[in-house]
Design goal:
It is a single chain. The protein is mostly helical. It has helices spanning 12-23, 30-38, 42-45, 48-60, 64-73, 79-91, 95-107, 115-127, 134-148, 154-166, 170-186, 195-207, 211-223, 230-242, 246-253, 262-274, 278-290, 297-309, 313-326, 343-351, 355-367, 374-386, 390-402, 409-421, 425-437, 444-456, 461-473, 480-492, 496-508, 515-524, 528-540, 547-559, 563-576, 585-597, 601-621. The termini are far apart. The protein is built from 35 helices and no strands. The longest helix has 21 residues, at 601-621. The radius of gyration is 42 Å and the shape is elongated. Pfam families: PPR, PPR_1, PPR_2.
């Protein structure tokens, strides 16, 4: 027996639990769920620890619906399993479902919520929308510890404090904060203000514009021996900048323990740029190098945008060159750059023949999975078209579509017109087709221009036929010359069936083609059978043709050994025609002779009679 095989005496419950635990090692939970369904009575067979392990795995994978269903079926869900599911629901903003689950759990006879449950609820509810009131949060904070006999910890107090601040109830947050400090001084409570507590309150003061109060609390924090961290410092710098209290920012910088980082400098530069102080922003930018603080994508984008808005494009371009040379955007860490922040420099490049450089910068932004921006794409597409690089412009159109962005008509038309200028008609047709699939409707002249280009280009007959059928479906006005040329091109490309089908659709939709011109061309190309078919089609549509055209088709059929087809056409012309001649006398003589040579004497006699009648009518008129 191999080492992985279960003992022969292993109980079914143990074997089932062991297999389930083994399946849960995989990221794919489907095999575990499938195995659960194969068990005859899984909730009585499997031990509680196995079911709880599955519940936690489902919650961690975000399978909240399956996890919730399992939770309601487990005889005794463990508190840590419940906490996992609760956190998963709240992360997805499903506050109502989380509340309902809590109610079910608390009604359970063996319910044992703990401090983690409370912390999860406070954090989840405070970030949900709509946020609960301060009264609701305080009620929850008191109810669970008192009912289930557990003590809140530092995380609990910090979570509640943060929740109150997010709810905008600074007064209640201050009371709680003061209570924590009294508790610290007068009892052995585990809840005491730490760096998170102080930073939360400092952020709340800054959010209300209370810069002096925030700085005063910072001084209390330091006096009480709590060391600020970089989040504390950056929170104050940002708050003071937003309040316009730059003198307080200087005071923060004077603190010996403060070591400004990239975030700090970016905040300062943002404040200077928002007030139009570009020179001050550039001083901060240069100071980063002096202090060996790394510049990230946000640093560059902020300054570049400000320089462009100040029309200092040369300096902005120098910074872009530095970004590309140092591959700043390719470096991980820091915030993900925003494409939109670079729009002013994209506009400058594309208006000044530097679309290639704009594309390099844009490509690095996309590689960082930056949030895509419609206006940036459009600027680059039109910029490349302006410089005649239509292939690159079209690649950007395709890139937009992959990212669920829809290029507008101006983008598509610029690319289509460009491809037509270059004679790349299949590419123009493909771009037009994508434009239609994007729900946009180009002008009738655009349809006609692309169709004309396809008809002039060798090897594009199928695409031209596809286009005219789309035009018919979308009720786009037809051009009789283009329609006639299309049918001719289809016959020349041996797409006869397609030619007949489209001709019928044109007439069914109230359009027509220049039939005499088409039939003459078919005869020139020795396609007399097709010419005869179109002659008959004209008869059915009451489209009168000249005697010369009838004669041309009849002569061609006769001279190419198609006497029977010629007679059939002649007979239809007689049956459906007027009392006037349907063909020239010489054509009737030729038909009569061809029928006699083919041994079609009965048909030849019929033609002879028609010839004599025609001669008689001529004599009567004279």
């Amino acid at each position: 027996m191999g080492s992985g095989a279960p003992p022969e005496s292993e109980p079914p419950a143990v074997a089932a639990a062991r297999k389930l635990h083994h399946l849960l090692r995989s990221r794919d939970l489907r095999p575990a769920l499938s195995y659960l369904r194969t068990l005859p009575s899984p909730f009585t067979l499997l031990p509680n620890h196995a079911l709880n392990a599955l519940l936690r795995a489902l919650a961690a994978a975000g399978r909240v619906r399956a996890a919730t269903s399992l939770f309601r079926s487990i005889p005794a869900p463990a508190s840590h399993s419940f906490n996992s599911l609760l956190a998963a629901l709240l992360r997805r903003g499903r506050r109502r479902a989380a509340s309902a689950l809590l109610a079910v759990f608390l009604r359970s006879r063996d319910a044992s919520p703990d401090v983690t449950t409370l912390n999860t609820l406070l954090h989840g509810f405070s970030t949900a929308s709509p946020r609960p009131s301060a009264a609701t949060l305080l009620k929850l904070f008191r109810f669970l510890p008192e009912t289930y006999a557990f003590a809140p910890d530092a995380i609990t107090y910090n979570s509640l404090l943060s929740a109150l601040c997010r709810a905008g109830d600074l007064a209640t947050a201050c009371k709680l904060f003061d209570g924590i400090r009294v508790s610290e001084e007068g009892s052995k409570s585990v809840a005491f203000p730490n760096v998170i507590t102080y930073t939360t309150m400092i952020r709340a003061y800054c959010a209300k514009g209370l810069a002096d109060e925030a700085l005063a609390l910072f001084k209390v924090m330091v006096a009480n021996g709590v060391s600020p961290n970089r989040i504390t410092y950056n929170t104050m710098v940002q708050g003071f900048c937003e309040a316009g209290r730059m003198e307080l920012v200087k005071e923060v910088f004077d603190v010996d323990s403060f070591k400004p980082d990239t975030c700090t400098f970016n905040t300062l530069m943002a404040a200077h740029c928002s007030e139009g102080r570009i020179e001050d922003a550039m001083k901060v930018f240069d100071q980063m190098t002096e202090l060996h603080v790394r510049r990230d994508s946000a640093t560059y984008s902020m300054v570049i945008r400000a320089l462009c808005e100040n029309r200092e494009f040369g300096q902005a371009e120098e910074l872009v060159d530095e970004i590309l040379e140092k591959e700043v955007l390719k470096k991980r860490g820091g915030s993900v750059p925003l494409v939109a922040a670079y729009n002013p420099v994209f506009v400058y490049f594309c208006e000044n023949g530097k679309a290639k450089k704009a594309r390099m910068l844009f490509g690095q932004l996309l590689d960082r999975r930056s949030k895509v921006d419609f206006h940036a794409f459009k600027t680059l597409i039109l910029g490349h078209c302006k410089e005649g690089n239509f292939e690159e412009a079209y690649e950007l159109v395709l890139s937009m579509l992959k990212r669920d962005l829809v290029p507008d008509s101006e983008c598509y038309i610029a690319v289509i017109d460009g491809f037509m200028q270059k004679g790349r008609m299949k590419s123009a047709w493909e771009a037009l087709h994508r434009m239609l699939n994007s729900g946009l409707r180009p002008s009738t002249s655009t349809f006609h221009s692309v169709l004309l280009g396809l008809l002039k280009k060798d090897g594009c007959a199928k695409e031209a036929a596809d286009l005219i059928e789309i035009m018919l479906e979308r009720k786009i006005r037809q051009n009789v010359d283009l329609s006639t040329n299309l049918i001719d091109v289809l016959f020349k490309s041996d797409l006869n069936d397609r030619a007949y089908k489209i001709t019928k659709r044109l007439y069914d939709n109230g359009y027509y083609i220049k039939m005499e011109k088409l039939i003459t061309t078919l005869c020139d190309d020795k396609k007399f059978i097709d010419a005869a078919e179109f002659t008959l089609f004209s008869l059915q549509k009451h489209h009168e043709l000249s005697v010369a055209v009838h004669s041309l088709v009849l002569d061609g059929l006769c001279m190419n050994g198609r006497a029977s087809e010629a007679f059939q056409l002649f007979y239809e012309l007689i049956e459906n025609g007027s009392t006037s001649a349907v063909a020239a006398p010489r054509s009737l003589v030729l038909l009569h002779h061809a029928l006699e040579e083919a041994g079609k004497m009965k048909e030849a006699d019929f033609v002879g009679k028609q010839m004599r009648r025609a001669t008689s009518r001529i004599r009567q008129r004279s």
